[in-house]
Write a structure and sequence with these properties.
It contains 10 helices and 4 strands. By secondary structure, the protein is α+β, with helices and mostly antiparallel strands. The protein folds into 2 domains: 109 residues; 92 residues. The chain has a 4-stranded antiparallel β-sheet, with helices on both faces. Helix 2 packs across helix 3 and helix 2 runs antiparallel to helix 7. The relative contact order is 0.10.
Length: 271
Amino acid sequence: MYEMKNTKIVTFDRLVDNIRKLEKSWLVIIRYFEELSGMGEMQKWGFGAAPFRPDTLNKNRTALKYLLSYIDNPLIKKNIDICTEISIVKGLFNRIIRQDQWDWFTVYMYFDYPNNQESVTIVKLLTALRFAIKNGRLEEAKKITLHIHKTNFISYSNNFLEFNINSDDTDEYIYILSRKEEKDLLKIGMTTRNVLKRCQEINSATGVVFPYSPRKVFRVKDSKEAERIVHEVLGEYRIRADREFFRCDYSMACELIEGCLQEGELIYYKY
């Protein structure tokens, strides 16, 4: 009997010890996300909308600066490994194309929403440029930089370098949000401000347990009118008349939205 009691005490003590260890682990995780967000409290953000860590943002901006300098004069020798910088920048555009990283939408927004087809072209050109430089084909590299100049790469890069997350956006948007757990339950609305800020407001609302992720934005000329038309076109998929939620396939929703915005001459192609 004595041994049994001792066993129970030891087992209970171990349980308490494990609970304390688990509690410490959660505190470490919470502190990590607080540091990551740069805020004094835990922030809610969905897949794709993770904020940049300060060192990551600095690394990305440094790579863009060096690459812009090289593109401006490709025959000047640099005291840096330009191939590494090209790889970093290429990785940023690949994030937009693949949409498979926790910060892909953040990258997308910093570049000011580059066209997907042009992003693919830029990745191909950067791949060719890196190969030419690595193999000492400087004349070929120079020709590739001329092709890069014909894209909007320089504009996108300058957008990234100048972007301030706290500044107000001057454009208007229709956005599509969803949860990773319910990909076909779409929240579709409008904003005249920073899309991530709007998303963060929604995620901070009472009752939101799993955060929404931004999945698509359409730059428009008149966001209120655009929203009215979009909601009308998607009316049969709307869950409730007083809410901006629609249950439908994401790809189909994108196609219908872009089609009606083009027909109404409301979509605004900035680049």
